[in-house]
Amino acid sequence: MQDLISKLPTVSTNIFSVMSQLATTHNALNLSQGFPNFETSPTLIRLVSEAMQNGYNQYAPMAGLLPLREIISKKTASLYQRNYNPEEEITITSGATQAIFTIIAAFIRQNDEVILLKPAYDCYEPTIELFGGKPVPVQLNGPDFSVNWDEVASKITKKTKMLIINTPHNPTGTTLQKKDMLRLEQILKDTNILLLSDEVYEHIVFDNKSHQSAALFPHLAERSFITASFGKTFHTTGWKMGYCLAPKELMKEFRKVHQFNVFCSNHPMQHALTTYLKTPENYTSLPEFFQKKRDLFLSLLKDSKFTFTPASGTYFQLLNYRNITDESDVTFAKKLTIEHKIASIPVSVFNMNQQDDKLLRFCFAKTDDALQKAAEILCNI
User: Fold this and answer.
1) Which residue segment(s) compose the domain that 119 sits in?
2) What is the DSSP string of 53-92?
3) Are the beta carbons of 16 and 32 closer than 8 angstroms?
4) Which residues pair with 23 in a beta bridge?
5) End-to-end distance of the chain based on CA atoms, in angstroms?
6) How far apart are CA 201 and CA 195, in angstroms?
7) Is residue 316 in a domain?
8) How would residue 174 be classed by pLDDT, with cut points 50, 70 and 90?
9) I need a labelling partner for 7 at 20 to 30 A (CA). Which of 20, 129, 181, 276 fits?
10) Phi (first) and psi of residue 114, to 5 degrees
């Protein structure tokens, strides 16, 4: 057998798997990977079970159940004042990551350039490279992780095919504001550049602020794919269910790849989600729910040596440990897991050139008991 040549030679096991495995090995409290440690709604579980018992166990339609797409269309119109045709502009996906992969696969060719903001969710760059594209990173700078839009504009060339944004932002817990979206709209207005807007934490925004979806801005929406996650919204990350919104002509190309990627997504879960989404409180209550957890976690850390700016969205909180050690964030994260029995994610792995700002990401989508235990550990460091 001839020697294999990897298409992703620099890619290894991702940091989420590494830290979760380390947490398991050392019996550490796992605040690293972004999943809740509490149960999802019993109502939603019952609805899935009923759908299975009612025989919805074979393939769903390729684009997803039409009633589910219809309720998503109504939800999007209510929240963001933009109408997406449920038959031609909405597709149900096997999680947001599958949607992101499919978007990039459908449009990125050899030597196409894709601008992305770093730190960035770790699926973007390998997927771009897999299809011969070139990631063009722009580093966000702390402590507020604001976007230098002039730098973004300066990165645009005749080869630029796509720009990727993520708001609310993983891993920093920051959010893009209306002024950011208007500036981005101005930058892209007279170009043919596509926008991939990763909005999986759309319902987790704090301090009475509103999520600034690309759907709210006409000149962005007309060129945008918007990805969303039922897993993040309804505490069911293991179900891998999400959806994608895009104008008709863009979605047509998306579905060409989607049908050969997964063809369709989980059938009984689509029936359950159709019913569950008919009660808006199931997602509109999330800001208050998670803000209480954020505020509890930070109040318990007020006397620790860690410093922080409260997250404005997502269920991730960055903690700065400069007052504790000069060790690299990867080294310190592993030490915390092994010696102090608490796991986090070092942020440098998402930055350009592994820029180390002495920041660790902690997931606060945990029970209050788990957050209190975590804070007790961290306050003793």
Assistant:
1) 59-281
2) HTT--SPPPTT--HHHHHHHHHHHHHHHS----TTTSEEE
3) yes
4) none
5) 53
6) 17
7) yes
8) very high
9) 20
10) -130, 120
Do 158 and 275 fall within a single domain?
yes
Q: Are 263 and 280 a contacting pair, CB within 8 Å?
A: no
One domain for residues 272 and 293 = no
Of 281, 301, 335, the position where a domain reaches its end is 281
In the chain, the amino acid numbered 203 is H
pLDDT in tens, 238-276: 999 999 999 999 999 999 999 999 999 999 999 999 999
As a residue count, the chain comes to 381
Map 279-304 to HEC letters: CCHHHHCHHHHHHHHHHHHHHHCCCC
Q: How many helices (H) and strands (E) does the chain have?
A: 15, 12
Q: Say if residue 171 is preceded by a cis peptide, omega within 30 of 0.
A: yes
Q: What is the DSSP string of 136-148?
A: EEEE-BTTTTB--
**Do 35 and 175 sit in the same domain of this protein?**
no
Q: Which two structure tokens, joined as six digits, stand for 278?
A: 């008919």
User: Does residue 200 lie within any of the structural domains?
Assistant: yes
Confirm if 317 and 362 have CB atoms less than 8 A apart: yes
Strands (E), the chain: 29-30, 90-93, 113-118, 134-139, 160-166, 194-198, 224-229, 242-245, 316-320, 342-343, 345-346, 359-363
DSSP string, 164-179: EEESS-TTT-----HH
Taking 80 as the threshold, does the pLDDT of residue 180 lie above it? yes
> Taking the complete model, does pTM exceed 0.70, yes or no?
yes
What pLDDT digit, counting tens, does each position of 318-338 carry? Answer: 999 999 999 999 999 999 999
> Residue 318: which of 334, 327, 329 has the closest Cα?
329
Could you tell me if 97 and 231 lie in one domain? Answer: yes
Among 143, 148, 108, smallest CA distance to 127 is for: 108
The long-range contacts involving 75-80, CB below 8 angstroms and separated by at least 24 positions, are: 75/277, 75/280, 76/215, 76/245, 78/280, 79/211, 79/213, 80/213, 80/215, 80/216
